[in-house]
Amino acid sequence: MAILEWSEALSVGFEEIDRDHRKLIDMLNDLDDAVASDRATDVVDRILDDLISYTAWHFRHEERLMQSYGDPAFFDHKTEHEKLVDTALALQTRFRDGEQRIPESLLAFLKDWLSGHILGTDKKTGRFLAENAS
User: Which of 15, 47, 115, 134 has most Cβ atoms within 10 angstroms of its Cβ?
Assistant: First the structure.
């Protein structure tokens, strides 16, 4: 069972961002599978690293789109992104330093943050981009 499943309810109405979100959800589910099946620490670490790297790339992508269309919510949105990346990196560091329970807390954090961010902030951004990209 996936920790988070893509549904149309998560669509922000802007395909570029939706495509990124689907990939993030797939990666989160891969991490959840790795943790649940008790895979080796290096495998979990690699998947976690890939997820954090892709998340940072996605945020830069989303922010470029917001800037190019003049989204007035850009700076607040960027601040949310920075906080997530900082928190995820801190949890990753703790995991690498030997706290083996971190992936489960990180999974819960990422799931809640990702779904909440998509349903809140990103929905507004998607509407703005869809209205202004036409």
Answer: 47
Whether residue 4 lies inside any domain: the answer is no
* Chain position carrying tokens 């601040």: 79
Contact 56, 110 (CB under 8 A): no
Give the pTM.
0.90
Closest CA to 66 of 119, 126, 22: 126
CATH number where 24 lies = 1.20.120.50
Closest to 115 (Cα-Cα) out of 35, 36, 1, 25: 25
8: number of Cβ within 10 Å: 6
For residue 88, the enclosing domain spans 13-133
pLDDT digits (tens, 9 = 90+) for 30-55: 999 988 888 888 888 899 899 999 99
